[in-house]
Amino acid sequence: MRLGKVGLLLLLLTLQSCFIQPAGNKGLNYSNLVFTAKVIRIMDGDTMEVLYQNHPVKIRLAHIDCPEKRGHQPFGTKARQALSDLCFGQMVMIQGQNYDRYKRLIALVINNKKQVVNQEMVKLGMAWHFKKYSSDPLYAQLEITARKHKVGLWQDSTATAPWEWRAMKHVLVK
What we know:
Layout: H1 5-19, E1 34-44, E2 47-52, E3 55-61, E4 64-65, H2 76-87, E5 91-99, E6 105-110, H3 117-123, E7 128-129, H4 137-148, H5 162-173
Parallel strand pairs: 3-6
Antiparallel strand pairs: 1-2, 1-5, 2-3, 4-7, 5-6
């Protein structure tokens, strides 16, 4: 079968359109997607924004929960700074898993030193293993080790888990 020049051009244009991302890809599903993006904003210790194909994507770090910056939970600001030190301004690899109720992509983030940022936050004592949403034994062990060595927030014997902190703040507001 021979295609004329016009037929070949039409075929190539049709194939190309299958691979072009639509403008305004806000509706794209990044779960189960691995991609590289630049970290452009750190909201708190477990939430960031990356720029992917000229579009911002909010990322919630999988497996962990950090002290709240809003509401001034102890170590909230330090957790945000630790996350910033690990990846702000870098090209990182994102391994999307799913979305939370706030439409943030829950993901693993790997920085330019090949560190899994999620794990590093627990090692630094800046995050709890978020057992409600993660049964990964590695994160449980990293938290046990950080507690044992009194790293980061574990220096405070009365450290309150973020989910408990949020629950207390919610009760006080009512």
